[in-house]
Amino acid sequence: MKREWGFTLIELMVSMAVLLVVVAATLSLFQYAMQTNQSSTQLSNMNGNLRSAMNLLTRDLIQAGQGIPTGGVPLPGGAGCTAVNRPVPVGSATFTYGCPNYTTNPNLPAVIPGNAIGPAVPDTPPATPGNLGSPNLTWVPSPGPTSDVITFFYQDNTLITNSIFNGPIATPNFLTTLTANSMTFSGAVTVNSGSNTANIGDIFMVSGAGLYRYVAITSISGQTLNFVAGDVYHLNQQGSAASGTITDLSTAGVPFGGTCTYAAGPPATFTNTTAGACAAYAQRVLMISYWLDITQSVNGQVIPRLMRQVGMASSCASPPPPVGCPRSVAEVIEGFELSYDYVNGTTPVNNQVSSTAAAATCSCTITDNQIRKVNVYMAGRSDTQLSQNQQYLRTNLATQVDLRSLAFVDRYR
């Protein structure tokens, strides 16, 4: 018989063993590549969330205080006054300025700290229980699960309405009437037409006779903006709580109720023909708050979000949400902590969470009107758990922002 050649059983077993080793190595490399890709994607998303949130906050903080008078703006504080509301994530809170602290803190500063008044973000393993902050940053003095809130003001330059008009003016941009509950702009001001108009809930800073006061718009009729009592902020308290309200302008010599008359001149000039009757102007300002929201969850897991809120609406229940409702800036931001550098003219005090803490540190008088720098810390985590260890990736981002409109002085003006 002709001899037939083939594989022996041992040779077959050896080849299968080699094949299994190669397949196992290939699958292991494939699994490693998949895990690396997942980690890279999650890390990229996490860093993107932190960067976008930090960039927007930094841009806003650089403008904080622009157009706001030095020392802030008084809030209502007379007999029967009500504390002014501030935007907060859950429930309600009020500013510690004005009523009922009018004697000691009558003015609302351009930057208002909110240390530990934000929500407590639930710890998610493997975070250290009770600490979502960074113990390595000495200028974040209060690490912990209770987040911070910050609120600040600056002039809204997208709607310019405060051209000086108590004499020849460059543009026909002025108020024609002013009362304790309304103001009417000339037809040249696009307060009720175009792409950027005044809205109910907008805050205007009305100025006259060297005084500045805030009013909140409650209704609009043509060129007339009304600000009657009962606004969501409690800024319009022109009744018994007249101190710190727009009625102070009338007391200081700004006539209320009269109509300003302007004679048309050359194309670029309008002349006020009723001298002294129009010594006031108004400009829209933005009140912006940043805070963490913990009301959103997926599969029982809280997804903390950094929120940005411009003003405050009476209700955000009906879509689309009106002006004054919070907007999500970035998701899975689980740590938001701030400290401030104060300069009182003689003794700089750095890395403090409030003016009270700063004053205790230096044994001197410190107010929030002396904030010159904001130190920001944000902590974020990945959207989902990693498949290899069922844990979240975590990282943080920190920066320090000089408040341009508060930290620098125009010595040539």
Structural overview:
The chain has 413 residues and is α+β, with helices and mostly antiparallel strands. Helix content is 17%, strand content 28%. The chain has helices spanning 9-63, 247-251, 355-362, 404-407; strands spanning 73-74, 85-86, 93-94, 107-108, 111-114, 149-155, 175-178, 182-185, 203-208, 211-216, 219-221, 224-226, 262-264, 270-272, 280-293, 297-298, 301-302, 305-310, 327-331, 333-343, 348-352, 371-381, 394-402. The strands form seven sheets. Strands 5, 6, 9, 10, 15, 18 and 19 form a seven-stranded antiparallel β-sheet that branches. Strands 7-8-12-11 form a four-stranded antiparallel β-sheet, with no helix packed on it. The longest helix is centred in the first third of the chain and has 55 residues, at 9-63. The model is unreliable at 129-143, 164-173 and 265-270 (pLDDT under 50).
Rg result? 29 Å
Measure the end-to-end span: 115 Å
Q: In terms of per-residue confidence, which ranges show pLDDT below 50 for 5 or more consecutive residues?
A: 129-143, 164-173, 265-270
Helix and strand sequence: HEEEEEEEEEEEEHEEEEEEEEEHEEH
| Number of separate strands | 23
Tally of separate helices: 4
Instruction: Specify the structural class.
Output: alpha+beta
Beta-strand share of residues: 25-35%
Sheet of most strands: 7 strands, antiparallel
Helix content: 10-25%
Provide mean pLDDT, rounded. 80
Please tell me what the overall shape is.
Answer: elongated
Brief rundown of the structure:
The chain has 4 helices and 23 strands. By secondary structure, the chain is α+β, with helices and mostly antiparallel strands. The strands form 7 sheets. Strands 5, 6, 9, 10, 15, 18 and 19 form a 7-stranded antiparallel sheet that branches. A 4-stranded antiparallel sheet has the order 7-8-12-11, with no helix packed on it. A 4-stranded antiparallel sheet has the order 21-20-22-23.
